[in-house]
């Protein structure tokens, strides 16, 4: 179809997001789709064969194409595509959070050197315009914290465990059947996907280039009914919360941790596959954005918004990233204290940790629960050993005492008997 603007787009990928973008473009024919590059020659398609190519170069070297959308599921190939487009000074939008977060310094440098453009709103929270908000509105205002539920699959599972009493396995199977979780859910339930997203948020919100090992990360894969019931007795819910926060010493604290949230937090009300992001700015105060964090049309809509903005000449300013003449980076903090709840079915494997305070309870040969306070850097250092114990690890707000957790645990036991 001839477009109203006379502009042509080349699309890489025709899966969940690629098809979502294609649907949106069919209903809003401002752009002509040149071709769609896919991988599997045997797959049945909803479009005629001549709509597709299997050779990325057929798109990348077509000088009649004005911009590209990279929406494939292979991060290595996605990097090659984005790199080649930027080296040619082209405009490309992408949804690949893993690829972008792991290569951000290079991708920023390529844009500077060759004057190309890369936009990636769809990579963070699907339809929620968080990067554009950070760039366009908070480019100059200091932010104190950006935190939220950034992964729809794990939130769907946690919601089902809490609201319907499903087991983790049942909730995961349901999320997979509905297309909210991948066949291999590790990236989602292990907190890696949220880590990629909070890293991108940290770059735009605080100018920090984050290495994955600097982020305290634990997932939800070892949560049990015991943990869910404990949260309910305490009046809260576990949510997988990613946060980037400036502390009292002007250092950045980064984490992706299951966190006990209460009705006084907006995050308590983010349910199923939805995402929610809370922003706390120095002058503007607090704001909260909630919306669909994944899915074909919501993510396709975010890609379309980037495509339209890029055609109008929009680029990220990366206003908070340190410039070459001022290479001082925001330091990432490990000295702050965290209160954590931990339950492990392998108490015999628990490593010795430098707890500042520790209360153990529910200990028998098959189980141990504890509430402890520890320095972030110590938890970060011992996390690999803790993960060997198949522990569920979560942050507890400081206003919940260890005694309250012990009492709640006793109540859970009485209810289960
Ligand atoms: N799904 C979501 O809701 C969502 C939300 C935000 C961001 N994202 C991101 O968006 C991207 C796409 O996700 P998706 O869910 O749309 O994936 P998907 O449904 O699995 O589709 C992936 C597409 O990529 C194509 N592809 C894979 N490797 C390729 C290669 N080497 N060369 C050319 N094409 C290749 C596949 O080709 P075939 O069709 O031939 O198999 C398929 O069309 C990922 O980076 C994902 O993280 C997804």
Automatic annotation (TrEMBL):
Reading the lineage from the top rank, the first entry is Bacteria
**Gene Ontology molecular function:** homoserine dehydrogenase activity; NADP binding
**Alphabetized UniProt keyword annotations:** Amino-acid biosynthesis, Methionine biosynthesis, NADP, Oxidoreductase, Threonine biosynthesis
Reaction(s) catalysed by this chain, per the record, are: L-homoserine + NADP(+) = L-aspartate 4-semialdehyde + NADPH + H(+)
- EC top class named in words: oxidoreductase
**Pathway(s) the chain acts in:** Amino-acid biosynthesis; L-methionine biosynthesis via de novo pathway; L-homoserine from L-aspartate: step 3/3; Amino-acid biosynthesis; L-threonine biosynthesis; L-threonine from L-aspartate: step 3/5
Domain Aspartate/homoserine dehydrogenase NAD-binding: from-to ranges: 13-120
Q: Which InterPro entries match?
A: Asp/hSer_DH_NAD-bd, HDH_cat, HDH_CS, NAD(P)-bd_dom_sf
The alphabetized list of GO BP terms reads: methionine biosynthetic process; threonine biosynthetic process
- Is Acetylation set as a keyword in this record? no
Q: Might you give the EC number(s) for this enzyme?
A: 1.1.1.3
Q: What are the Homoserine dehydrogenase catalytic domain coordinates in residue numbering?
A: 129-307
Q: NCBIfam families this protein is in?
A: PRK06349.1
**Family label:** Belongs to the homoserine dehydrogenase family.
Name of the protein = Homoserine dehydrogenase
Q: Which organism is it from?
A: Pontibacter oryzae
Q: What is the lineage of its organism?
A: Bacteria, Pseudomonadati, Bacteroidota, Cytophagia, Cytophagales
